[in-house]
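Task 17 of the worksheet. Students: predict the tertiary structure of the chain below and write it out as structure tokens. Keep your answer in the requested format; marks are given for formatting as well as content.
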Amino acid sequence: MNFGQTDFWTVAVIVGLACVTVLTRCFFFILDRAWTLPEWAHRALHYAPVAALAAVIAPEVVMTQGHLVSTWLDARLYGALAGGAWYFWRGGVLGTMLAGMAVYLPLHLLLGW
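Model answer:
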């Protein structure tokens, strides 16, 4: 069976993934009673945004082209340290970003790090 340029198995996988997606998204509507998260899962969800952000940001700070940064002359390291210091000193996301960029930009643009 051939659907133009797409083979049968590709179409079957797409349809199967679509069915799984619809089933998992409609699962809570299908249930006949109210469902609540266990307390431990509810507490764990408070850390999910921080964990996701760390998983995205950390490799960008410590790696260059798939390899660990091999020199201390990298503006990203100092920008991340400045942002972290601001966060622990004053807190707040905006101040953290501004402090990190205030250190990163001069080092990167003026010194070429």
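Marker's comment: The chain has a mean pLDDT of 88. The radius of gyration is 23 Å.
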